[in-house]
Design a protein that fits this description.
The complex is a heterodimer of chains A (289) and B (158).
Chain A: H1 7-16, E1 21-24, H2 30-35, E2 43-46, E3 56-59, E4 62-66, H3 71-76, H4 85-94, H5 97-100, H6 105-111, H7 118-124, E5 128-133, E6 136-141, H8 142-145, E7 146-148, E8 151-152, E9 159-166, E10 172-179, E11 190-198, E12 205-212, E13 221-222, H9 224-230, H10 237-250, H11 261-282
Chain B: E1 3-10, E2 13-20, H1 25-32, E3 51-54, E4 57-60, E5 73-75, H2 88-95, H3 105-118, H4 124-130, H5 141-157
Parallel strand pairs in B: 1-5
Antiparallel strand pairs in B: 1-2, 3-4, 3-5
Helix pairs in contact in B: 2-5
Classes of the chains: A alpha+beta (289), B alpha+beta (158).
């Protein structure tokens, strides 16, 4: 293991050693994957000591979250108050306290699979990620960062240091739902996050963003056809039911050892509606679907 | 495989030992320091049985590389109470028959203690949330919750 003392040392090391290196934050996911031989690295590079990357800041309408912020950090931060209850949605079902205390935001993003509960939330918030290397920094959208299952756009000499998104305003909210085998310590059969902005005048859908962990071609990803169908429409039962048909055509629901295709197809509309109801309630609305 | 000097504090005592990169905190505690109170369950972070407190936070010691515990303060079950003078949690766990096979109990006590340190009068729901990552396969959760509530009362009364 290489233990850098500061960021410069780390970036220099990564620039000199571009293969066989695996970054490790607090290890809650990585150690498991190494034990299963899913990851074989010659050298681990320990990021856990770089405490400067554990922060939540707001500036000029942008929320900035340091990559080493833990899931517990997200929900205990005064910067993310009631308006960001979506992070409490995630933390309450993310894992037990011993996982929530160590799992990091950056780790969740970089693990890049359908199991990562934070990714759908950040996708509907249109989050971006900041990558730095010895050569400089670049900022790309999370959507572009996630190439496929366990594949990201990060280069061997880069680290992900921050994720950022625009602050939620009075008219907008966000929610998250997850279903798994039990209520704690579980990997999702399905998860769903929705961002909703209702218009002040008629409570119509001004903007909606939907992400689930099993969207065709993207794991996880946005259901953009469903979003387009609902945008500008009143938030009514009929419109939501019609949108569910489109949503189902955008999802890739297959069987695996966690759940069957049939079960996933049965619960996907329920998950979407539950998340939407939660959003509507958070904006003071009353949606019955 | 590289070796590292690990300096850390366990139950108030400072230690310095040479560890290899892949060594887990769990193994260092049990096999190198002889603190067998911390149990190994699933080794994948699913059961919470190996929980210890690191810098005031509950962590799964099976998912912490020993070297990542450098400069940290670790508390294991060995630091909680003594046979002559048990911690209120231990007293109430005995009183309410909250231990069956006992394997999860070191972790249950630490998870509960971590809760009571931050929240001296937890509700049933808050207790459930605090121990939700610690699996008891004897499924004795009701008496565990009762015991934690009683211990909270006792500690407040002091």
């Amino acid at each position: 293991m290489y233990v850098p003392e500061n960021l410069n040392q780390l970036l220099g090391y990564l620039d000199d050693h571009q293969s066989g290196v695996q970054l490790i934050a607090n290890g809650s996911d990585l150690i498991n994957r190494m034990q299963r031989r899913q990851i074989e690295a010659r050298v681990l590079v320990d990021l856990s000591g770089l405490s400067e990357f554990s922060y939540i800041r707001k500036d000029n309408g942008i929320v900035r979250i340091g990559a080493l912020t833990t899931i517990q950090g997200l929900i205990s931060s005064p910067a993310l108050g009631e308006r960001y209850d979506v992070f409490r949605d995630v933390a309450s079902i993310f894992g037990g306290p011993a996982i929530v205390n160590v799992a990091t935001v950056g780790g969740n993003i970089c693990a890049a699979s359908s199991s990562e509960d934070l990714i759908p939330v950040l996708l509907v918030l249109d989050a971006k990620v900041k990558l730095i290397s010895k050569k400089g920094e670049r900022i790309i959208s999370l959507e572009d960062f996630l190439i496929g299952k366990r594949q990201t756009a990060i280069l061997p000499n880069e680290i992900l240091v921050e994720t950022m998104f625009s602050e939620l305003d009075d008219q907008s909210t966000c929610a998250f739902e997850k279903i798994g085998m039990r209520n704690s310590l579980v990997i999702a059969f399905l998860n769903c996050s929705v961002f909703l902005r209702l218009s002040k005048e008629n409570m119509g859908i001004e903007e909606i963003k939907i992400a689930m962990n099993r969207v065709t071609g993207k794991i996880p990803g946005r259901a953009k056809r469903t979003e387009a169908e609902l945008k500008g429409q009143p938030l009514t039962q009929t419109n939501v039911e019609n949108a569910v048909t489109t949503l189902m055509s955008e999802l890739r629901l297959t069987s695996d050892f966690r759940a069957s295709e049939e079960y996933r197809k049965e619960v996907a509309p329920v998950m979407f509606k539950r998340t939407l109801i939660k959003c509507s309630e958070r904006l003071g609305g009353e949606l019955r679907v | 495989m590289s070796k590292h000097l690990l300096r850390f504090t366990v139950n108030g005592k400072q230690h310095a030992l040479v560890v290899e990169s892949h060594e887990r905190l769990l193994d260092v505690l049990r096999d190198r320091l002889g603190l067998k109170g911390t149990k190994e369950g699933c080794s994948t972070g699913d059961c919470g049985i190996c929980s210890v407190i690191m810098d005031g936070k509950l962590v799964n010691s099976c998912l912490v590389l020993a070297i990542q515990a450098r400069n940290k303060q670790i508390t294991t079950i060995e630091a909680i109470g003594t046979v002559e003078n048990p911690h209120p949690l231990q007293r109430e766990f005995i009183k309410w028959n909250a231990t069956q096979c006992g394997f999860c109990i070191p972790a249950m006590i630490l998870a509960s203690k971590n809760l009571l340190d931050q929240n001296p009068s937890p509700s049933d729901q808050e207790i459930k949330e605090a121990i939700r990552g610690t699996l008891c396969r004897c499924t004795g959760y009701r008496s565990i919750i009762r015991a934690v509530k009683a211990a909270a009362q006792e500690m407040k009364g002091r």
